Every structure is written in C-alpha cells, then in structure tokens.
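Workshop exercise sheet. Pairs work together: one partner reads the sequence aloud, the other fills in the structure field after running the prediction. Swap roles for the next sheet.
Pair: D.N. / O.F.
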Amino acid sequence: MPPAPRSRVALFAALLPLLLAAQPVATDSYLPALPAIARELGSASTSLTAFVLAFGAAQLGFGPLADRWGRRPVLLLGLALYTVAALACAWAPGTAALAALRAAQGLAMAAILVCARAAVRDLFSAGEGLQVMARGLSGLGVVALISPLAGAWMVQTFGWRAVMVAMGVYGALLGVACWRWFGETLGARGASAAVPESSRAQVRQVLTNGPFRVWTGVSSFSYAGVFCFLLLSPMVYITLLGLSPALYGWIPAGGSLVYIASTQLCRRLLRHRGAVRTVQLGALSSVSGGLMQVAGWLLWPGAAWPLLAGHAVYVLGHGIHQPCGQAGAVQDLPALAGRAVSWSGFLMMLCAFCAGQTAALFVGPQMPYGPWPMVLPLLLAGVVLVVLAFTVLPRHAVAARPAA
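Structure field:
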C-alpha cells in the first residue's frame, strides 16, 4: 500500500538533504584524491572537468524526461548510474576511462538533482518550498564540510580508489532508500496549468516566465561569485600570500560552516520577513562582502584576514540566495517543474563557468594582478544581486508571505 500523502511528504523531506548531498560526495570527497590519481594515471583534472561539464549540460535533457516519465523512474535511473559509474571508477585502468566514467557519473548527478528539486515543487507550495530547500541545503553544507576530510583520510589510509568505492556505496544505499520510500510526486498537488504540447513552446514558456528569470538570476550570480573563489583562491592564498596547503584547506571548510549557519538563518528570515525581504538582506550581505575585500586589500595589502572576512560575509548571503533562488525558479511553473529546474541549473552552471574562465585569464604563475581576479567578480556579483533584489524581484517574484 502506498504511504499516505502526509507520510510521503515527510519521507521526501528527510531524503532531500541526502539527494542534494550526492553532489558534494561526488566532488568534494574527490578533490583530495587528485594528486594520487595524477601520480598513478598521469592526469586528474580531465576527469573532474568531464564530471562538471556533463553535470551542467545533462540537466537540459533530464528535465523533460522527468516531466514526461515522472520523477521516480528518472531518479532511480540516475542513482543506479551514479552507483555503477563510481564503482567502475575504482577499477579505471587509465585517464581516458576515468574521465568517461566520471562523465557518466555527472550525467547521473544531473538526473538526481533535477528530480529532487522538481519534487520540492510537486509536494510543497511556493512558500513551503523555500523552507524545505533551505533545510535540504543545510544538509548539503554539512556533507560538503565532511566530504573532503573523509576523502583525505581514505586516500591516506587506503588509496584513492577507496574514495570511489565509498562513493558507490553511498549511491547504492541512497538508491535503496529511494526505492522504498520515494513515491512518485509528479502531479501530487493536482497542478492543472496549461502546458504547451511542443517541446519548443514549453521551453519558451519557462524562459519567458518573469519569476523564473529573476530567481534564476539570484542563484546564478551568487554561485558565480563562489565559483570564482573556489577556482582562484588556491592561487591567491597559497601562491600569492604564502599559506601552506594544509592551512588553506581550512578556508573552504570555514566557508561551509558559514553556509550551514546561513541556510538556517534563511529559514528564520523567511518565516518572519518573507522571501523578497530575505533576499534583499542576503544581497546586502553579498555586496558588503565584496566591498570588504576591496577595501581590505587597498588598506592592508598583503594581509589575508580582510579577504577571509569578506568571503565569510559574502557566503552568508549565498546561503540565503541558493535555497530561495533554486526553489523560487520553479514556484510559478508547477506543471513544467522538470524543465524549469533543468534550465535553472544549466544557466547557473553556465554563468559560473563563464565568470570563472574570464577571471582565470588574469591569473598567472606570478599572480601579476594580485587577488583582484578573485575579488572583483565577488563584488560584481554582489552589485548585480542588489539590483535584482531591490528593483526586479519585488515586481516579478511570486513571494512567500511572512508568517503571522
């Protein structure tokens, strides 16, 4: 007998953090293994690039499939592929095989993420979805904090292939849990909005929807600033400022702690201030973080602490923008949630990739431009977020009302 609707909602809310956390399990736990992979196979960066590109592009395909076939079959297919690809990576004989298998895992991750985010819209109202997504991303933040530490321990104790085995075990256990407790959510709220028959018309309806565009902009620009930090901060803190790699490792870990706290703060703000005001406060935090980094480097050149403080303040806003942006992008498109989620995720990855590649053009072995390639994108993202939050969002977003 299928579970009662209320039980199904509760089970999904418990599964959501684990589904979202499949991404940091696949990436953050893998990072400490890269040097060992390079020593054994000769190259490691190709496999990570293949995962990221496949993950970003495949979301466009899995969104329509999730709308047509349902969330459950696409999710279970993704979890099965995620598990098989991870376990196969543990026996990869060379760089090409590892890259191909990691690309397959990126495809699987796209299916998992699209279905998890679409199911949030299927089961919850617009306001509830923001709360549920914030809770789910809190769980993701915890896993993002633990994953690199666990990955480093496994690499040091058992070797890099053990990381891939553990990744496969995680996918298998999550697949069993979803097989038992994840019921089909497509149409759970009885959505009756008119859906165009042609695929092109459906995409047009998503991309021309005002709330979709503004909420996707919020999540995309916020993530672009964080992506530039992840891409360039090793060069800034290790090469330019002389921190040891071990000491540098605590910087992204500290950012994860701030992110977890921020998603918890987001839930409180949503209850008392509503979605629009919450995002406005997050935007002020984001731009303040960028300004702190700029002013800090101008006043205390060569000091790391202003950059660290500014990054923490920016991440405080990022933990507000991600749950609001990701849930808000689909809240006005319940009948096309799969397509909306896939395009939102693709555009977020595209924005981050373009920002990161542009900033990387100004980074060299001697760091001729200092920290500015990392700092200025952060400030620019903060400025755009302020413009979106205070001028565009109030006009177009279907905002959750504050709790009474």
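Discussion prompt: Confidence is low (pLDDT under 50) at residues 398-404. What would you look at next?
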